[in-house]
Predict the structure.
Amino acid sequence: MNIRMLNAIKADVTFQLKQGFYLVYILLTIIYMLIVHQLPEHMRIVVVPIVIFFDPSIVGFFFIGGIVMLEKTQGILDFLIVTPLRSKEYLMAKAISMAMLAILASCAITLVAYQGEVRWSLLILGIGISALIFTLYGFFVAAKCKSLNAYFIKMIPYMLLIVLPCLLLLVQTPFDWVFSVFPSVAGIRIVYGAFTGMHWLEAGLHLIYLSIITIVCLHIVDKKIFGGSYGE
């Protein structure tokens, strides 16, 4: 990570603070804490991983649409080509800033609502890399949208591709492993494994797979938005 990206991440966090994204998410996190804390202890080992995966880890997917629309309105995307920041650095700075928010919210909810043993390294890696992927995924959806309303409409079928494969895991079949080709399923397996235990080899394979998906998504989104042409 170079100085350009560090400065871009700092600028993104400042922008998100000014636009109220952090305030909204702090309030949502507090609500989740209060609700989950009321559940019986034996339910939390199931509910907490689901809550922190399906909310903080996909926060980037929801918020990135608003951010892209704001930057389109302000003409920021048009001026990126004359800055030292490369297109992939711009995209990753956004994704990393969203991942940081997701990790902070996830850790806060876990600390308050769950008293059992947690493998924190696995939790942070699972939430962080999932948030990177979903933010880039949101960029892909938002790329050709002209308004925030258009984004919210267009995102529905894309969101189903994240949620439905995870819900299919509730139906126990001999072919559950097949669902892991979906990044959301690989991500939720890692997060759930942070609470229930997961063999290091399985965790490592999932993380390697999600890292490859992140790189592929970055190249696809870069090409879709910027044509993959500047800053190379």
Summary: The chain has ten helices and no strands. The two ends are 16 Å apart (CA to CA). The longest helix spans residues 87-113.
